[in-house]
Amino acid sequence: MGFRKDFLWGGATAANQCEGGYNEDGRGLANVDVVPIGEDRFPVITGQKKMFDFDDEHFYPAKEAIDMYHHWKEDIALFAEMGFKTYRLSLAWSRIFPNGDEKEPNEAGLKFYEDIFEECKKYGIEPLVTITHFDCPMHLVEKYGAWRSRELVGFYENLCRVIFNRYKGLVKYWLTFNEINMILHAPFMGAGLYFEEGDNVEQVKYQAAHHELVASAIATKIAHEVDPENQVGCMLAAGSYYPYTPKPEDVWAGRQDERENYFFIDVQSRGEYPAYALKEMERKGIEVVMEEGDKELLKAHTVDFISFSYYSSRVATTDPELLEQTAGNIFASVKNPYLESSEWGWQIDPLGLRITMNDLYDRYQKPLFIVENGLGAVDTPDEKGYVADDYRIDYLAQHVQAMRDAVDLDGVDLLGYTTWGCIDLVSAGTGEMKKRYGFIYVDRDNDGNGSLKRSKKKSFDWYKKVIATNGEDLSI
């Protein structure tokens, strides 16, 4: 048994967390560029604090990140050395359409990604491309209000037509929006949404979500028309909710929390708004404006597979006294007393991955693809840049075993697995470099200092062995 013979092992990055080169070769400014590190980061990514440009008081880590814009050949060679079958990366929208609303694309941006895809093909690596990973041109934010405007559907469609045609034969696997449910939790980072005083925040978020869902269906339609070989997936920030107690109210609270996240995937995978979501919007007075043909589009162009990130399970309760919270990828959750936590308070739950996989597969009956999973930790390199990261190996080994159990024992159809941050990069949540995920150490600190030198960690050779044995040998 075990994983399928063509299982897609690899790693994942996002343009805004690794590329840098924010103003090179005609690239425009994006929402993710102007998010600073420090105490203002959370108010900015949640749309509560207005920051539409750089200032002198803050450090903006995405400006340079790990400068993959100039190191991509060397980085892909390292991925190939590990034996990657796939590399998940995202496009910087403003590299291809600097303002977002142009008729014609920026050739330098298109060529940059074409060169990357060609390099991947040279090594037999299948690109898995996220069309937008928390990425929206700032011009679209300032002129149109980002995804609150229906006009963004057309601009996104234009982007999709260009990339699907340009990269036909080079890219087969696509994701429309990264962690689409993040629009509810970090709306400026997730969708460029900033809220003015007097805004009905919930109304704005769900209307913007509808625009993204329609755009996703259009992208799926175009992808299949341009190349029937294309496979298009949705992408969810996943993690099943456990009730804190067997109290029915806690069980129901967990169900409601899960539905809030499943809502998007229900639409993308099943093709219609679920009854519970329509009722919830009705109760909250949210009226989503739909144009003629929207429902038909959503129904006719559902995704081919379900991709998701998994870092931790979550816990739900109705007890107002339970104020001890744990961090977790923007999602606050009651602390689970039965689990250990990472240095950032994210609780470690490999069995939770198996549970989550079963929940998703039972719900949608479509192939799954785990496109983010990993451990953010402080790594201490020796003088040669080597990190003995046994803690990361242990974390990943447990999660790969849980995946194997879901496949072998439960019959879940799993296409592949890309660990998050296969090379150290800027953290989306905190903006830190010291919160490292990679198999490859990058010499750079939270303040932007360092040589950017790449060096292999212990986990590099471990993952190479895992891939070579198709997940059979997980030993250190």
UniProtKB/TrEMBL annotation:
GO MF terms, alphabetically ordered? beta-glucosidase activity
Q: Which UniProt keywords apply?
A: Glycosidase, Hydrolase
* GO cellular component terms given for this protein: cytosol
Q: Where is the active site?
A: 372 (nucleophile)
- InterPro entries assigned to the protein according to its UniProt record, in alphabetical order: GH, GH_1_N_CS, Glyco_hydro_1, Glyco_hydro_1_AS
Q: Which residues cross the membrane?
A: none
Claim: DNA-binding is one of the keywords in the record: no
In terms of superkingdom, the source organism counts as: Bacteria
Q: Return one Gene Ontology term, BP aspect.
A: carbohydrate catabolic process
* Pfam families the UniProt entry points to: Glyco_hydro_1
Q: Would I find Hydrolase among this entry's keywords?
A: yes
Family, per entry: Belongs to the glycosyl hydrolase 1 family.
Name recorded for this polypeptide: 6-phospho-beta-glucosidase
The species this protein was found in: Enterococcus hermanniensis
